[in-house]
Fold these 2 entries.
Entry 1:
Amino acid sequence: MNHINKIDDADLTRRVKSGEKEAYQILFERYAPKIYHFALSYLKSTADSEELVQDVFLKVWEKRDILDATQNIKAFIFKIAINTIYDFIRRKNIETAFQEFSKANYSTGSNNTWDTVIFEEMQTTINRLVAQMPEQRRKIFKLSKSKGLTNDEIAKELQLSKRTVENQLYRALVFLKEHLQKDSVFALLFFYLFYS
């Protein structure tokens, strides 16, 4: 195993792209500690940072077919890490919003059941609304909000112009905002989910 540990990033990238699990393990060992410390500086939690490292490298493996040995694999991994950290913080903001809203509006004490019910209900409502969107808009929205892809990445994956992606995302958000305004709870949480 020692000889393969000495291979450069470009060769390692080629091997991971071809599905070589040993190379993927080495890539993990090479960069996981760096991602962990990077995440810890933002998340301030060892458990959250460890979970984030697992998420990042799972995404690297899932996206291995788009790896390019001529590009910087370290930069690619850190880009995924930054997007994952952003998504993680955004989810935390949502949870905080639920807790603050319920404390301000309901006398549920320390019971978290209400927060969980509202969160799950909002997710169900959003999923139902997303299902009503035209197919292309629905795909773009899911790639952006569920998988965390950038507009450029979505355009490349779906073979569309970046302008089309931006336009469809804008229309999707307007559609959701219009339908969620009827309920103050959902409107508040939608704001935290997509604009925080």
Note: Residues 107-111 have pLDDT under 50 and may be disordered.
Entry 2:
Amino acid sequence: MAIHVVSPGDTVWSIARQYGVSPQRILSDNGILNPQALPSGQALLILIPSVLYTVRPGGTLSSISSKFAIPQLTLLQNNPSLINSPYLQVGQTIVIAFEEEKQRRITVNGYAYPYIREDILRRALPYLTYLTIFGYGFTPDGALIPINDEPLIRMAYEYRTAPVMLLSSVTEDGNFSGERASLLFQNQALQETVMDNILALMHKKGYVGLDVDFEYVEQKDATAFLGFLEYTASRLHAEGFFLHTDLAPKTSAAQAGLLYEAHNYGEIGRISDTVLLMT
């Protein structure tokens, strides 16, 4: 693997010749849509194959996976063009391995709405650890506002990606509601009903964790919000799930504004298994 910083006069083709890789490999690995306009200073990932395989008659991803004792998912990760076009052609070149082994593992989470284009989602899934699906709201009586998440959950499992449920204060009209959030934080009986419904749905649909995304929490509800997170974490942990919390990107603990004042970084970090700083 190499990192190439584009210099004036560089082209995808000249860079490909320099490293002995195909131009298409550079385009796909770096998501380059316009190869005619490489800006100077752009850093490009250059993956250099060490083991290649030429597809023979009757060759399939399954047979190649068995031949080289590597998972089919790895073949897709090594050959992004196969993700949405899994049918192999005789004479096609497949990357089995690259020059450098992976040095460490990372956890990668992606967010998607139910209406995401399938081809875009499939291109991302082989590289994701978690897929968070946006998102469930709740009614004043504790019922969950449904979404069409089952197609995304099925695709996630197809690529060995773990689906994560998302709960927010989104109302029936699709907007965040500080009033709806406050109602939940201040009402223990409502919290119990909502969590009963969440846990039942997580078990039914195969979710592995819960993402809590309350973006408009009033300062008067700050303490109650922490109490809600404590309660939610205890219910989730008791049944083997994790709690992930989304946070507004504060620059100081005293930052004013509706997005920030109720988010106590230290306490939320203590309660949650993981957190996300939103952009």
Note: The chain has a mean pLDDT of 92.
